[in-house]
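Team,

Forwarding the record for the chain on the shared tracking sheet. I've put the sequence and predicted structure together so nobody has to dig through attachments.
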Amino acid sequence: MKKIVILTVCLAAFVANSFGQNVIKKGEQGVSSVGVILGHAITSKAFTIGADYRYNIDDRIRFAPSALYTLKNDGISSMYLNADAHYLARITDKATIYPIGGVGLSHWRWDSFIIDDLEPLGGHGYSRTIVKETKIRIGVNLGFGGEMRITDDIIAGAEFRYNLTSERFYDQAMLLARVAYYF
C-alpha cells in the first residue's frame, strides 16, 4: 500500500509539472550546482548526510548524481549511490519543483552477534562474537522536490525520495534538505 501511495504522489507531481511549463526561465542549459545534503531516513530512523552534483542538460531536464550515507542506528548503516533525473517546472524566477526518477545502488552493513557456549571448554557463561554483514541492492528512486534561490549563487531545497528494491527490508524513504552553490 505504501508503494502505491508513493507512486501516486510522484505521478501527481509529474502532472503538476506539465501545467507549470509555461513559466520556464530560459538560459538554464549547462548550469551546474554542488550541494550538501542533510536529512532523515524514515524507514531505518537514521540521520542522513551526503553530497550531490546537478547538471542541467537543457532548460527542463537535469541529471543529478548523489551519494548519501545513513549513520549507524541499531547496528545498521547504509550508503546510496544514485543517478537521478529531474524534470524541472519553474514556478517563479527563483522557485522550482520537480519529480525525481532514477536508479540507486545501496550498500547495507550491520552487526550480528554469535553467542558461544563456554561450558564444554570448562569456562563459565557465554562469549559473544561480533560479525559484520553486508548486502548490496539495486533499486529505483522515485520522489519529488523543490528548491529556491536564496542568492544568485546559493540554492536551498527539500526532497522526498523513496528507494524501491526487490526486497522490502531494503526499501528506504528519506526526507532531505539541501544547500548548494549554483554556477
